[in-house]
Automatic annotation (TrEMBL):
Natural source organism: Paenimyroides ceti
Name used for this protein in its record: FAD-dependent oxidoreductase
Entry keyword annotation includes Disulfide bond: no
Domain of life: Bacteria
Membrane-crossing segments per the record: 47-67
Pfam families: Pyr_redox_2 (PF07992)
Keywords of the record: Flavoprotein, Membrane, Oxidoreductase, Transmembrane, Transmembrane helix
Keyword Ion transport: no
Amino acid sequence: MCNIIKKTLVVLTRRKFMKLSLVTSLAVSLPDTLFSLLKNKSMEDKQYFDVIIVGGSYAGLSAAMALGRALKKVLIIDAGKPCNRQTPHSHNFITQDGVAPNEIANLAKQQVLKYETVHFREDSVVTARRKADKFEITTHQQQVLFADKIILATGIKDIMPDIPGFSECWGISVIHCPYCHGYEVRHRKTGILANGETAFEMSKMIRNWTDDLILFTNGRSILTVEQQTKLIDHGIQIVEDEIEEIVHKEGKLQSLALKDGIHLPLDALYARVPFAHHNEVAQQLGCELTEQGYIKTDLMQKTTQSGVFACGDNSTMMRSVASAVYTGSMAGAACNREIIEENF
Ligand SMILES: Cc1cc2nc3c(=O)[nH]c(=O)nc-3n(C[C@H](O)[C@H](O)[C@H](O)COP(=O)(O)OP(=O)(O)OC[C@H]3O[C@@H](n4cnc5c(N)ncnc54)[C@H](O)[C@@H]3O)c2cc1C
């Protein structure tokens, strides 16, 4: 018995040896062109992915986790500028309440990159286009990459108003969402920077957290008489004077300086600012946008272009870490299902 095993081992070793010698001698005699073909093939493998995810924050990482667990070869390309980077603490995401935004993202990245088919590059996608049955991506660092599917998890870029101090306080004491930061400034002296219908809706909402509320319309109010009466009846003061400056200490609001010289002390200011997409990638791919400017998707996060998915802030006004994680996970699963359907 022992002898048989030994013999088999010897035969296998000899076979292996012959195979190895053949490969080596072939390699030595390979013409240059064949060598460069092989080299190009391995380059291609490095540049080809089942899915490229543009944006590697909560939505992108979440999509990557679903795809990594489905054994897909995935590349996440991330420019490292998540929208909440200035916020000291993130709230209202279960298990991570009060944790710093980058701590949540770092832990997510660590967990996602445990899947050996998932890769991460710090870079920025500049162009994306359909090329035959694939997508071709070019990046800021001059990389040309290919994928069968694309997931856009690019977030959005908030456009700061031209008020000194505003951008320094953004996410610290100038806040966009009561569910994210309202509890921390409950019952405090709070302002709302808005006008018209938005101002009315925001005032109604924010009064849930504090009744020490001033609405700054930053110019003539365009609220209806009924709206103004209702706000005043609920103890909400309306200030029409233009804002000169937000006075703060390291992002912590102290007062609002008005153009007529008055300083009104405040602890927090709610503001909803306009947004833009970080780049033209969705448009280059021909994805339709909604009336509000988000990338149009169905419930499975498919955009209007086949093979292209979108998730996170770029495709919903329900802006939160929880929502980005949910839509990212959905995009990953839907994308994987599409690949399975096409190849089965
Ligand atoms: C100030 C502020 C505070 C917030 N606080 C909270 C909170 O407390 N709780 C909560 O639940 N939510 C909060 N939010 C909302 C939450 O941060 C977002 O909903 C969430 O970050 C969206 O995740 P995302 O992955 O879609 O986008 P983002 O987190 O914005 O990430 C998008 C990523 O894509 C990258 N990217 C964009 N274009 C490209 C490209 N062409 N190539 C490569 N990479 C690209 C960006 O650099 C970025 O890293 C806050 C938002 C703001 C603005």
